[in-house]
User: Which sequence fits this backbone?
């Protein structure tokens, strides 16, 4: 009986974590969409919005670090020296990719609808396969390549249907492709950078957000966003800053719940959960924004989601097989 209660509580906790990931992730996308392109906010400064979210993340990291000294049994945030020359040299290249990734993702979301957002950024898997071969020399199975071909087909069908519907944003789609590209490069570079911070994801998050705050400043000046923000009529409104802060908290929270979901389940379960979440997010967005989509538009989403899920499953089986072979060789 105690064993059954233990398993029940474990499964309840896992269910809670997955549900929290879904809620926070979907709310983050909708919140960012409101901040970036809604008539209520009406601030044409996507880089500033992204910069402020990085600032909120840094404040949260510093606060948690202080609290870890008071409650070491509950919070464990390592000390960091972000401006040491060796740290800058090894982490800054990753932070540049991180800045590009979050900037292009938000720019994509500014110009495309929430319903098309997932398809617009669906080429990450394809870029992962390409860059893994180009940069690391690792080949990919024909099954995975077939999944990538299906993702590309679904992406192009989605773009075509957006064009047919008259809602295609070429600029938003371009930023989506650039977001996928930078996310792919970031993932590869992150694996090489994690040993520098002793595999501490939160310390790396602190460095990335802190460096991004600095990197975004010249970008905002070059784009003229500093003038836009200065002349913004709601700059002194508490509601605006409340919404901005909530967006920043959501941005930090999604990183936490992503890591937590992987920890309590597995990378494969996280991928499946993320794919299912994207499906729910797309359906919810069409309902929320009262959008009517064609059969082929829905087909494009189905193709991308299914191919992405199959790719994750195939890679999981391949990695498991490779691990078993390596274990057997070590025993011999």
Assistant:
């Amino acid at each position: 009986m105690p064993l059954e209660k233990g398993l029940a509580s474990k499964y309840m906790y896992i269910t809670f974590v997955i549900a929290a990931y879904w809620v926070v992730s979907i709310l983050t996308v909708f919140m960012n969409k409101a901040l970036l392109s809604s008539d209520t906010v009406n601030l044409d400064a996507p880089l500033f919005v992204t910069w402020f979210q990085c600032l909120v993340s840094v404040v949260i990291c510093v606060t948690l670090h202080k609290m870890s000294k008071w409650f070491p049994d509950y919070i464990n945030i390592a000390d960091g020296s972000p401006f040491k020359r060796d740290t800058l040299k090894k982490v800054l290249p990753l932070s540049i990719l991180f800045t590009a990734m979050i900037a292009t993702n938000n720019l994509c979301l500014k110009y495309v609808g929430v319903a098309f957002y997932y398809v617009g950024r669906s080429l990450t898997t394809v870029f992962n396969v390409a860059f893994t071969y180009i940069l690391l020399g690792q080949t990919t199975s024909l099954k995975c390549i077939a999944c990538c071909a299906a993702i590309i087909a679904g992406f192009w069908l989605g773009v075509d249907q957006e064009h047919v519907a008259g809602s295609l944003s070429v600029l938003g789609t371009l930023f989506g492709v650039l977001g996928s590209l930078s996310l792919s490069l970031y993932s590869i570079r992150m694996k090489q950078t994690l040993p520098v911070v002793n595999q501490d994801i939160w310390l790396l998050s602190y460095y990335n957000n802190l460096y991004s705050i600095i990197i975004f400043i010249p970008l905002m000046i070059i784009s003229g966003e500093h003038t836009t923000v200065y002349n913004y009529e709601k700059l002194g409104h508490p509601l605006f800053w409340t919404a901005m802060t909530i967006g920043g908290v959501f941005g930090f929270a999604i990183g936490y719940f992503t890591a937590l979901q992987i920890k309590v389940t597995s990378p494969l379960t996280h991928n499946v959960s993320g794919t299912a979440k994207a499906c729910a997010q797309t359906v919810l967005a069409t309902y929320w924004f009262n959008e009517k989509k064609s059969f082929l538009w829905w087909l494009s989403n189905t193709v991308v989601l299914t191919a992405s899920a199959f790719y994750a499953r195939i890679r999981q089986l391949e990695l498991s097989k490779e691990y078993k072979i390596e274990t057997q060789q070590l025993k011999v």
